[in-house]
Structures are given as structure tokens and as C-alpha cells.
# Entry
Amino acid sequence: MEERARQLVENLARAREDMAEAARLAGRDPAEVALVAISKTHPASDVAALFAAGQRVFGESYAQEAKDKREELAHLPIEWHFVGGLQRNKAKLVAGECALIHAVDSLRLAEAVDRKAAERGVVQDVLLQVNSAGEEQKHGVSEAELPALAEAVTAMPALRLKGLMVLPPFFDDPERARPFFARARELKEDLERRLSMGLPHLSMGMTGDFAAAIAEGATLVRIGTRIFGQRDYSNR
Ligand SMILES: *Cc1c(COP(=O)(O)O)cnc(C)c1O
# Structure
């Protein structure tokens, strides 16, 4: 195995061990938490190496890059997620092409994704990105607007609401992200009552704070740097 592939596979194993440990410490079954390996800016060959080591779920953040990588790796049964902010005019690159879209945050974006999924004759699973940090963050629906958006999405024929996603501000100390994760779980539980339906997913936690997110109920953690190393945005 070449050196890069060996390093990736080792990083993956360590990340999985740490996830399992965080789950056990929280009294959770490690099998309840899935790893979405965030491959943005990294080559398809890295994804293929991790796939060969058993990783099946990968997440991308840029619509065109995601499409190019999906095409390059079309021979592998990868479960692709789209985790980045999505512009409405890029909805056609993603809707019906990814198993799960993590960051739907407006009615107009939801409508665009619904329309494209319907055109393709598929039902698209989505999460709503909620912004519990107030003005500090530009992405995500506000807590006040979340219930109305969730109700609208559940009424859209080609969308299926699966839960919430949160991306707290960056803190050096991951414990400071923890209240945002706890809040996301509360919001999900409120929505489940309001909509009278189960929402299976809470997408939260990245390289720096996934243990705190798992302690607060994450079902999907989105880990990039810990597996792939630092990103180089210059060749995007
Ligand atoms: C890039 C990205 C990640 C991965 O972040 P790391 O700190 O590298 O683990 C997770 N979530 C989203 C939405 C991202 O854009």
C-alpha cells in the first residue's frame, strides 16, 4: 500500500476508535453514530483508499467538486452526502444525486431542491441547518423560523425531513461548543413533538469537537481534517 493510503487508513481507524470511546463514555452504543468522512479539496484517490478500508459515507461541501468526484468514483457504491451551504442555482447539481443534504436552511432552497428531486423522480432526504448562535453565523435557519420551515419541508412531495444539522462557531475548547449541540438536540425533540414524527438524525461534530457532539446525541459526525490532514484550498 502506498504511504498516503496507509496514513489515511490509520487516521480513519483512530478516528473510529475515538468516536466509539466518546459514545461509550456517554453511555451510548457506538453503532448509533455514523462517520461522514469529509473529503472536500482532497482527491478521488484518497476517497478510494478509504473506501477500500471500509468507509462508505463521504461528504462534500462544494457542488461542482462533489459532482466531479462522484463521476470519477461512479464505479464504487459510495453513499455521498452534501454538507456545505448550497446556493439555489446549484441545487440541480446535488438534488437526487446525494443520499442526504445536511444544510437546507431556507424555504427557497428547500423549494429548489424539491423541484429538482421531483423532476428526477426521486425523494431527497434532507436535514435543516439550524443557527443557534444568533448573528455570529450567516448560515442556518433561526430557531424562531425553524418550526415553520420544518412544516413546509414535510409538506413538500419530493423532500423527506430526517433531522437537524448544526455547525457551532469555532472554539479552541470544544466544551464551549457543547451548549450548541445540546440545544440542537432540544430543538429536534421539540420538532418531533410538533410534527408527530421521528427525526432520526442530528448531524453535529467535526474534527475538533466530535466527542462533545457525540456526548450530546450526534448520530452523524462530519470529520475531515482528522482523517485527511489539512486542506489546501489553493487548487480548488
Ligand atoms: C469541512 C467541513 C467539515 C469538516 O471539518 P473538519 O474540521 O476538517 O473535520 C464538517 N462539516 C462541514 C459542514 C464542513 O464544511
Residues 42 and 175 are 29 Å apart (CA to CA). The chain has a mean pLDDT of 96. The chain has one domain: 2-228. The two ends are 27 Å apart (CA to CA).
